[in-house]
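Thread: "does anyone have the structure for this chain?"

Original post by V.I.:
We have the sequence but no experimental structure in hand. Need at least a predicted one for the grant figures.
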Amino acid sequence: MVIQSEKFYENPAPYFKEVVNFVGPNPWAPEEFKVFNAGGEYDKMSDTLRRKLLDYYQPHNEKLFQLIGQRFEEWGGGVGVRRAEFGVRERRA
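Reply from O.Q.:
Generated one for you, C-alpha cells below.
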C-alpha cells in the first residue's frame, strides 16, 4: 500500500481508514487528527531549481509509478503535462 503524504496530510481521515482496513485490525480512528510540525510558509522555489529537481527525479518517479501501479500528478506524473506547473505548498522561514 502506498499513500501520497500530501493527500494524507490534507485530509487524513479517509486515508487513515484505508490504512486501517488494509492492515486489518478492528476498525478504529482517533476522535481528532492533530497537526504536528505543520511548518509555516516557505520562500518560493526558483523555477530553475524546481525544473532541475523535477527533471532529476522524473525517471526515478516513473519507475515508482510503474512499480506501484499508480501515478502522483503532483510529482510530475501527468502525461503531456509540464512538470514545473505542479506546485507544492510554499514555506517561508
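V.I.: this helps a lot. Confidence is low (pLDDT under 50) at residues 79-93.
O.Q.: and The chain has two domains: 1-38, 42-93.
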